Amino acid sequence: MAQQRFPNGIDASPETFYEYQKSVVKTAELIANGETIIYKAVFQFNEVLCAIDILVKDDNKWYAHEVKGSTSEKPTFVQDAALQYYVITNAGLDLQDIFILHLNNEYLRYDKLNLQELFTPTSVLEQVINLQPFIVQKEIELKIY
User: Nearest CA to 130 among 90, 85, 66?
Assistant: First the structure.
């Protein structure tokens, strides 16, 4: 449903858990071909992989959205976003912002489902930037083996 909040995207998901390298290539091709909404975009930097749920290019700037079934951002979500930011930006994509897209627990549905109101984007960019030294320090533990 969160993808429907950003309609007409292209899915870069791997066909199986073992085919993430194909998704890295597919994501790069989609970006190079001018796609502006990519679901499950996959990036790799220095042998560390990450996937971001929704990647959106708006006004020539990239925004990352990590979808959570929670009603708020949690410290573990922010740490995950910090790793995603680290990999994505070091892979060469300049992110303008990164968001945790979580459920709005104050949303009341009266008629048609409003996805803009059901999901709340919370920018975690400042926290993510502050965590970058921690991510760099832990990079060796995050390597693919």
Answer: 85
**What residues have CB less than 8 Å from 68, skipping those under 6 apart?**
74, 77, 100, 101, 102, 103
What are the tokens at 79? 């740490």
Number of independent structural domains in the chain = 1
Residue 129's CATH number? 3.40.1350
Which residues in 69-84 are b (16+ Cβ under 10 Å) and which e? Answer: eeeebeeebbbbbbbb
Residue 140 tokens read as 């060796």
Q: How many CB atoms lie within 10 A of CB 59?
A: 6
SS3 64: strand
Domain that holds residue 132: 3-142
Strand 61-67 vs strand 95-103: parallel, antiparallel, or unpaired?
parallel
Question: What is the per-residue pLDDT across 65-110, written as a single tens digit (0 to 9) for each?
Answer: 999 988 777 889 999 999 999 999 999 999 999 999 998 888 788 8
Residue 74 · residue 85 · CB < 8 Å: no
